[in-house]
Structures are given as C-alpha cells and as structure tokens.
Amino acid sequence: ITLCYELLEHFQKLFREAGSGEAEADRKMLDAARFAFLHELGHALVDGYKLPITGNEEDAADRLSSFICLEEMGEDGLNAALAAADAFRIESKKANSGDGGGNDEKDYSDEHLLHEQRFYNTLCMIYGSDADRFNYFVREKYLPETRAERCPAEFERMAQSWTELLQKWRKD
Questions:
Q1: Which among 73, 69, 83, 78 is positioned nearest to 7, based on CA atoms?
Q2: Could you tell me which residues come within 8 angstroms of residue 73 by beta carbon, excluding any fewer than 6 positions away?
Q3: Distance of alpha carbon 126 from alpha carbon 122, whole angstroms
Q4: Helix H or strand E segment including 4
Q5: CA–CA distance, 135 with 125 (Å, rounded to integer)
Q6: Which of 40, 50, 28 is nearest to 2 (CA)?
C-alpha cells in the first residue's frame, strides 16, 4: 500500500485552511492518513483474498477502516476516525462553496460516496461504537437524531460482518 506525499500535503493544507494551527493540522493530517491507509488496506484484503462485498466497495473500505480504528486501535484509532470525518466535512463545505468544484455529474458518477455521505457514515460508526460517550454528536447537532438512532445497530452489523469475513480469511 502506497500513500503519496501529495495526500499528506492535501490533508495538511485542508486542515490549515479550515483554521487549524500548524501543530493541530499536522496531527490531524497524520490521523487522516492513518484512516486512508486502513481504507486502502480494505481494498487490498477484498482483492487479495477475494472477500465478498455487497454494495459499494469504497463504502466497505471506509467501514473497515472505521472498524479497525474503533475496535483495535484505542484513542489513536478514534482520533483517526474523527480526523477522517473532519476531512470529509471540510471537503464537503469546499465543494459546496465553489472553492472545490461542487456536486456535479462527475461527483455523482464517482465510485466514492459524496463527502457529505462519508462524513455522516463515519460519524455514525463512531457514535454507534459508543452512543453514550458520543451523545454530544446528537446534542450538538453534528449527527441528526433520526440517523443516530440507527447507528448502534449499523455499527454492530458492520463489525460482525467484518469480523466474520476476516475470521474466514484467517482460517483459509
């Protein structure tokens, strides 16, 4: 798996433009890069071990990254998932402000979900992993209550699915 320097520069610039100081932008850059690396690992596992994926593989790779971050990596993983969600949120605002293009036909035809969807899906995974701890997502209106209600079950389903897929791979 290769992560290019340009991706790191992109994340650092993204967080700086959104108002983070240099040290905070550097930390978030590394955290977002950790999430991106695990996303790419998801593609490698799907391809290398012919894991069955129903639905969009890009979304499955995001969810594997969230799963590993939240279930295996403790606070470092949580910070990676939060930084990724923040990056998706910033990208969404840029796209919709005219600074980053906006949602046009190309965006809708891309294999990746829209930045807005990736933001909410990542927040949902974080919230679903511990609704009590992250109840401020709903209270402060980062995550709509109607979506948050489904997040614990969505997280459990996703975690169970990836656990079963990876256990099967370990046996083979």
A1: 83
A2: 80
A3: 6
A4: none
A5: 13
A6: 40
Angle, CA of 57, 130 and 80, to the nearest 5° = 55
Query: What three-state secondary structure class fits 50?
Result: coil
3-class DSSP assignment, residue 152: helix
The first and second tokens of residue 90, run together, are 């910033």
Taking only the tens of pLDDT, the chain with its 172 residues reads 888 999 999 999 999 999 999 999 999 999 999 999 999 999 999 999 888 887 889 999 999 999 999 999 999 999 999 999 999 999 998 877 765 555 555 566 666 678 999 999 999 999 999 999 999 999 999 999 999 999 999 999 999 999 998 887 666 5
113 DSSP assignment: P
- Consecutive H or E run containing 74: helix 74-97
State how far the Cα of 86 lies from the Cα of 15, in Å rounded to an integer: 9
CA distances (Å), 126 to each of 21, 25, 79, 142, in order? 25, 21, 10, 12
